[in-house]
Specification:
The protein has 153 residues and is mostly helical. The chain is 42% helix and 10% strand. It has a domain of 101 residues: Rossmann fold, CATH 3.40.50.720. Helix 2 links the parallel strand 1 and strand 2.
Length: 153
């Protein structure tokens, strides 16, 4: 057995994900189960959310998990075993008002992992998506005019 190792990762920082994956693989040799469970959301009308914030949400909820998955995947394929799980949200299946960026990122993630599931079948790698309904998560009450504070983490 291995002693636990704490590795910090900002899933929205796409540039550091490959290095973190490499560090994990160098330390443990392989990843048997990858659970993608990071998320970021914002509540607001489409016209009031900046394109910059839309991109941040997409980086955290779509590009982050797929970048990490793609970094770990070659190791799983070479061993012909592994399990990849995406903890998503029901908003990856349906959209609701004032959550356009979040729902779009979650829809994109579902589409990617659905395709990945079909592709990984021949390598005996299991790919699952979990889409729970609404959950209570940490939230900071925003100050007026401070959209960054309205981000849920």
């Amino acid at each position: 057995t291995y002693a636990p190792k704490l590795i910090l990762l900002d899933i929205s920082d796409i540039n550091c994900i490959r290095d973190v994956a490499k560090e994990i693989l160098n330390f443990y040799g392989c990843v048997d189960i990858l659970i993608n469970n990071a998320s970021m959301k914002v509540k607001g009308a489409v016209q009031s959310i900046s394109l910059e914030l839309d991109k941040k949400i997409m980086d955290a909820n779509y590009f982050g998990p797929i970048t990490l998955t793609k970094a770990i995947l070659p190791n799983m394929i070479s061993r012909r075993t592994g399990q990849i799980v995406l903890i998503n949200n029901i908003q990856g299946k349906i959209g609701i008002p004032f959550r356009a960026a979040y729902a779009a990122s979650k829809h994109a993630a579902v589409g990617f992992f659905d395709c990945l599931r079909a592709e990984m079948e021949e390598f005996d790698i299991s790919v699952s998506t979990v889409n729970p309904t609404f959950i209570c998560s940490y939230h900071r009450q925003p100050e007026p005019g401070n959209w960054e504070a309205s981000i849920w983490k």
